[in-house]
Amino acid sequence: MWLLRLAWALAVLGITAGSSPSPNPTAPPPDQASIFADLTPAELRAVRTFLMSRPELGLSPSHGGPLAKNTLFLVELLPPKKRLALRYLDQGGPRPQRQARAVVFFGAQAEPNVTEFAVGPLPRPSSYRPLRFKGGRAVPFAARPMTLLEYELLHRTLAEAMEPLYRLLRDSTGFWYHNCSRHCLTFSDIAPRGLASGERRSWLILQRFVEGFFLHPVGLEVLVDHRDPDPRRWAVQRLWYNGQYFSSPQELAERYERGTLAVARLAEPPFQQLFSSYEPRGRFATGTPTEVHGAKVCEPQGRRYRLRGNRLEYGGWSLAFRLRSSAGLQLFDLRFNGERLAYEVSVQEAIAFYGGHTPAAMQTKYMDAGWGMGSVTYELARGIDCPDTATYLDAHHFYDADGPVRFSHAICIFELPTGVPLRRHFDSDFRGGFHFYAGLEGQALVLRTTSTVYNYDYIWDFLLYPNGVMEAKVHATGYIHATFYTPQGRRYGSRVHSHVLGNLHTHLVHYKVDLDIAGTGNSFETMDVRFENISNPWSPGAREQAVASAQGAPRGGRWVLPLPQHPHNVGLLLAPGNGPDPAPVPRRYHLAVTRHHENEPTSSSIYAQNDPWEPLVSFEGFLRNNETIEDQDLVAWVTVGFLHVPHAEDIPNTATPGNAVGFFLRPFNFFDEDPSVASRSPVIVRPLDPPTFSQLEIQRWTPASPGPCIAPGPFTYNGTY
């Protein structure tokens, strides 16, 4: 193990090739990529049918009925172990058996728990076995993610509890909670759910149920204890209203009736041009047109990438991909010109830690894998979320459901003009002419999905560039997490509307990068640069400053991860011991490098959100084994992020410019030259008759004109799943 904790240093992480033999540098046939493909709807149904038929499991349908029952919560692919996959891909070994990961909530037992199973072989499963977390710990029932059924029961509990507050809510907001058909209140719940392991107490923020309700808190927050599997034992423990705490709804109602309560009265929201809506309002001062279409992406000679199943190819690149219901996009077997560069590159976790004056705000520490981050991949709008020309793919998730659910157009793939040349040069003759001009268009292939985790929308991208560079990037947009404005709250955010406080928070996103450069035997090193004083060899006595690297850069198999150089790109990383959790996610390191272990497949889990105090997956444990990382199979764990201080311009939504972070994977003396020289897209211009320049030779290997862009049909959108 080796970890690196650097604050925005000009440093470079290098993964160098070791002595392990290089795999056969030929792109695998597309059917080999299918060992990493997501489960098909038929496979998902087969797993459910098989497990439901096992009497010893005693499974019931997920929806309806009591909470104290055994249910199948999640089914997704259980990827093959790396050694088995590589034996199949590189050595002609047997094809790994296809298996599913199944998560079962055992709520009907005397000691409720959560158990994960490996189910297989697919497509006709006949056996299952329990999966163990590192250390053999069981999953506490209180750590399970929320379900639709639990939310329905929570709604009923809250509706009953809010009945004494009908007059207060009606008079102060024009909305209420119980017996409501219009002018209704809703709620947003926050997490972690309590202050210690085993608790399940959630603060609920009440909001007016209008378009963009996240920006309409009414000043009331309610703490509900819902740990018991029997909802009849659930109870409201505390309330916060307009800066004051109350022990019960009755106490708050009595204070209002006596006239001793400081009431926050809200104006009636308008029916049109609500501040939280997307409806246009106002005008640009220049008067330039916005009621016509802007620039569009087109493919004048057709697509330049190839998609075969879950195998994607573009220029020198080839990879397999999947969309995990639990955590999102995952790339496997990433190759350039047939040579593997990475076995896996994947999203692991997205977290957001908040500050605030209200109890809900100060408690909010979101860990989005616990909210089904990979399963909320709703339809991408053609021409907005992705270009009209993109390839759109459906996803099928089995998450808190009684069967696979189809999410149409959940993934898109497209070639993107970057708007800047990949490289170019104008060779001037310094007499008003030139010797030559050469340039290569800038393009990249984009693999994209989104996660709408309640208020926030994450746009997840992997970009492949022709020069062997890969970029992982995430944009944050959607509604800010807002609470009710009080003067005391201004220390923790900005007043973005009359009664709305945008709470200060930091976003941190974690990636796994399992690099295999010319084999699995890799080493880790850093390279820094410094100034040094040297004697000028051609002018005795003169001294100069020269830039030198702290370590040389010899030629060899090497890829680099440039570390963040600006504090905006890393957010607030916490020192060990800070915060309510020992280490549920790797939020303390910009970069950590560990040896690959089959029992360390992920850095977080779907259980970290509701039990961050005793996490089932402790990333700190990955780092404390003091293993050597020289000439070993290495995994780089990368954390990127940014600090978000909300402001009025976050209304109605946070905009993507300035709110994107990521990292690059770049070759470093790996190729003999820039591999994009293989592209047939450059243009070279040479004068034939200098100095008159009346005749030019234009060299290009593509058609002289791209031709017209074909207009697509009218915009359509379905949105169902």
From TrEMBL:
GO MF term set: copper ion binding; diamine oxidase activity; primary methylamine oxidase activity; quinone binding
Coiled coil: none
Cofactor note: Contains 1 topaquinone per subunit.
Uppermost EC category: oxidoreductase
Post-translational modification: Topaquinone (TPQ) is generated by copper-dependent autoxidation of a specific tyrosyl residue.
GO biological process: amine metabolic process; response to antibiotic
Residues found modified as 2',4',5'-topaquinone: 456
SUPFAM superfamilies recorded: Amine oxidase catalytic domain, Amine oxidase N-terminal region
Keyword DNA repair appears in the UniProt entry: no
Domain Copper amine oxidase N3-terminal: 144-243
Copper amine oxidase catalytic domain sequence ranges: 296-536, 588-676
Alphabetical keyword list: Copper, Metal-binding, Oxidoreductase, Signal, TPQ
EC number: 1.4.3.-
Name the record gives this protein: Amine oxidase
Species lineage: Eukaryota, Metazoa, Chordata, Craniata, Vertebrata
Designated gene of the protein: Aoc1
